[in-house]
Amino acid sequence: MVNISRLSTYIVAVFTLVGHDFGTIWLSAITSGRSKIIAAWNDESITLHVFIANVNDMGTGVNMHLLLQGYVLFFHLLKVKDTYHDNMERLCITKWISQLSAEIDLPSWLQFELREICICEAVKAYWHQPFNRYASVAQYEKSGANLEYHSDQTIKLGHAFSMVAISIINKTDESQKKFWLENLTFIIEACRRYVKKFDTVGQLERVLKKEAEAISKMVVDDFNAIMSTLRKESERNKDFAKEQEEDRLPVLWPGRLQCHHEHASQRIGAEY
Predict the structure, then answer these.
(1) pLDDT averages per 10-residue partition of the chain, 272 residues
(2) CA-to-CA distance for 242 and 132, rounded, in angstroms?
(3) Distance in angstroms (rounded) separating the CA atoms of residues 74 and 71
(4) Which of 209, 206, 104, 119 has the alpha carbon at shortest distance from 161?
(5) What whole-number distance in Å separates Cα of residue 235 and Cα of residue 149?
(6) pTM
C-alpha cells in the first residue's frame, strides 16, 4: 500500500517494466473506472498478481484475503517516515487493534495491553514493519503531538513489546498467565524501564534474533524483577499509582478493545 500519488507512479512503472499484471486506482479515476479495477482484483478468473493501493482506496471493497485460499499474500506498506504518514499509520493501527481482537486466533485469557501488544506483533509480521508499532500507540498516549515516531526510545520500546509477545506466544503456563494478568497495570512502564538496560537499538535487535525459548527466559527473569519494583513503588507512591492507571485509560476506553474480548471469547469458545 502506498500513500502518495508520486510514489504510486514509481511503483506502477517498476511493475510495468518487469511484466507483472497489476491493478491500481488513480486518485483521478471516475467511479466506474474504480469499480472495474476492484471487480477485476476480486475476480478469481483474472490473474492480477499485484494490487497497488492508495490509502483512499481501502474502504472500497477490495478483498485482500478471502479469494487467496492456497496462496501466500504479502503486504508492504510504503511511506515516508517522519511525516504525517506516521500519524496515519498509528491511527490505522489503533483501529485495527479493535477489529483484529475479534478476528485473530489469540488465547482468550489475553486481555487489554497484552492482547494489543500481540495483535501489533502480528501486524508487524504481515506488514513488514521494522518494529512493533504498539510503541507508537503507547508513546502517543504519553507524549501526544510531541511523539518522535522513529526515535531510538520508540524503536527500543517496540522491540521490547516484540519480546513480550514472543514470550507469551511461545509458551505460557498457568503461573506465567497469572503473572502477566496481575501486572497488567505496569506492563507498558515495565517495557519502558526494561529498554534502559540497552544502550543501542542494535543490542535489542540482536536479542530478537535469538531463539524464542531464549527470549522467553530473558523476559520472564527480567520482568519479574521490574514488576516487583513497580509494585513496591506503587504502594509507596500514590501519585505514581494514579499515573499508571491514567496511562491505561485509552486502553480501557469502551469501544477500543474490551468489548471485542467478548466477541473473541465467543468465537474461540473456550479458555486456553
Answers:
(1) 57 66 60 65 63 58 52 69 83 81 80 89 88 91 85 94 90 83 88 93 94 89 91 88 77 54 46 42
(2) 27
(3) 10
(4) 119
(5) 33
(6) 0.73
